[in-house]
Design goal:
Length: about 350
Amino acid sequence: MAHICAQNPLHGFRRFLRLMLAVSLSCAAGLACASAAPPEADVFPPWQQGENNDALDRGLEFTVPQVDVLADFHGNLSSPKLVLFVGGNYFFATAPLVAQFEKDNPEYRGRIFWETIPPGLLVKQMKAGGTITVGNMTWTVKPDAYFAGLAKVKDLIADGTLSGPAVPYVTNQLTIMVRRDNPQHVTSLKDLARPELRLAMPNPEFEGVSRQIKASLVKAGGDALAKAVYEDKVRAGSTELTHIHHRQTALFLMQDRADAGVVWKSEALFQEQIGHPLAHVDIPDNENTTAIYAGALVNGAAHPQAARKWLAFIHSPAAFQIFERYGFGKYEPALSSTVQ
């Protein structure tokens, strides 16, 4: 004969309380983990949740991080009134800059297109008649104004690609980007020669910043340090050269594919400001290199008046207030003879 035991209701209630406590603790642990690192989708570009696009009608929005994304191409190509080719190391500042410019000049609202790939690649695109292919898409767009380092802008004025004068507007310095809490204990440029330290470094073939980085490496440790970082470790596989460091260096660090990389300080500050698990190690002034950013009108520009308005805006106090958020310095003419 089967016996059915009556269950004490207090026992069941106690089990219920224990279960709810376990669930609560699990949820709390999950929330703690979520706050410790950004969601996986946030690790991948474009990083600014659509803010770097001034298009008024976006139609179907289809962006799949890590799969379908054009992070360095901004705005609507249909009928722009101003096209800007901007060296990519301040892609994050272009959103508030465009917003301020359009506020001051509402006739351009939603009618600006800009690219932020490395300046050397922008020049190659210009020499290809403005045509570029990304993935399976090819398009042609010709810039009205071009922005890069002052020396590069002057060279392009000299060869007739740009029309002078060059317009300098801000300065920037280098830093070493690392993961949050600096687990590899990087303290200086000399540490970059350590064989076990994995580096993400800009490729000299595409990225002008590599010239300033090499200059700083020489200041810190002579030609031997520059050779160790850019030759010996490249051959050994512990330095990975990027095509587009302002996207790849941060991403490689967050993916644990690299331990450190030299970038512009503004790039490191932006990554920290948006909550990515990254940090930076300052480089002392006697080893650092200061760059001057400049722009100029492109010869044969379709919208020369709009380009001149942007060039006037980019070195205005209103523009500098935006740049200053990311650690850029104010351009002073006396700097021109002393910087790289």
